[in-house]
Write a structure and sequence with these properties.
CATH architecture of the largest domain: Alpha-Beta Complex
CATH superfamily of the largest domain: 2-enoyl-CoA Hydratase, Chain A, domain 1
Order of helices and strands: EEHEHHHEEHEEHHEHEHHHH
CATH topology of the largest domain: 2-enoyl-CoA Hydratase, Chain A, domain 1
Strand order of the largest sheet: 1-2-3-4-6-9
Helix content: 40-55%
Radius of gyration: 19 Å
Number of strands: 9
Shape: globular
Structural class: alpha/beta
Largest sheet: 6 strands, mixed
CATH class of the largest domain: Alpha Beta
Oligomer: single chain
Length: 267
């Protein structure tokens, strides 16, 4: 739809998901939240989906919450009683981290311009972050007297470590793209005109591997963050047994031995 706040473009096994509200620098308004939730809630069920690139239209990736909505109370997260606002968060923006954390399909964030507050948190919810040279990152909730109500307090320390997450949150410091790479917040910094192509190329590389194995690799790494070594080894053995029963895993071995490109079927 022309007025959609989130554009979905399918390129074979890769989905390009573009935040499409450049007038607000893609603030996480209720329409954007609803459309992201609608897409991510069905992504796992799409067996043909190999990788997702999350990008943004305009000059900024995501400016976080809409300041005018905060002032005017036009967003359920900023209107009503304390209990009503709590429910607004739980049934609104907090659905995004829940869905992304449970998503087996890898997600790459292509970040240009500002990723501020909840915008930085949204990038941290993705598995891989690529930045353009003009990207800027800030966990700036204190500038508007807020806490990270969207799950950033959980994701950010897992990306940059606890001391750096504390510094970002408590000083509202802004990192440029090079600093973000030094801190481990992004893995690559490229020129703006190369950002989307770089992200899509990485997505196609990921999507070219056996899809069930890709999803279980991501799930294993995510789950292992909260497991003991013994539990991780148990889950690893179970997932390994699962993929070893797939036709694609046998095809991968055969292709290597026969020195030919593999032909995966998703089975």
């Amino acid at each position: 739809m022309a007025d959609s706040k989130v554009l979905i473009e399918r390129q074979g096994p890769v989905a390009l998901v573009t935040l499409n509200d450049p007038a607000t620098r893609n603030a996480l308004s209720p329409p954007i939240v609803r459309e992201l939730v609608a897409f991510f809630s069905t992504a796992n069920a799409d067996a043909a989906l190999g990788c997702i690139v999350l990008a943004a239209a305009g000059d900024g990736f995501c400016s976080g919450g809409n300041i005018k909505d905060m002032r005017d109370g036009t967003d359920p997260m900023f209107a009503g009683t304390a209990q009503q606002m709590q429910e607004g968060f739980r049934n609104g923006v907090q659905m995004i981290p829940k869905l992304l954390h449970e998503l087996d399909v890898p997600v790459i964030a292509a970040v240009q311009g500002a990723a501020i507050g909840a915008g930085l948190d949204l990038a941290c919810m993705c598995d891989i972050r690529i930045a353009s040279t003009d990207a800027k990152f800030a966990e700036s909730f204190l500038r508007v007297g807020l806490v990270s109500g969207d799950g950033g307090a959980w994701f950010l320390p897992r990306v940059v470590g606890m001391p750096r997450a504390m510094e970002l949150a408590l000083t509202c410091r802004t990192l440029d793209a090079i600093q973000a790479k030094e801190w481990g917040l992004v893995t690559h910094v490229v020129e703006r005109e190369k950002l989307l192509d770089t992200a899509l190329e990485m997505a196609r590389t990921i999507a070219a591997f056996p899809p069930r194995s890709v999803r279980l690799n991501k799930r294993l790494i995510r789950q292992s963050q909260d497991l003991t070594l013994a539990d991780c080894l148990e889950v690893s053995a179970a997932y390994q047994a699962i993929v070893q029963t797939t036709a694609d895993q046998k095809e991968a071995v055969a292709a290597l031995l026969e020195k030919r490109p593999p032909r995966y079927t998703g089975r």
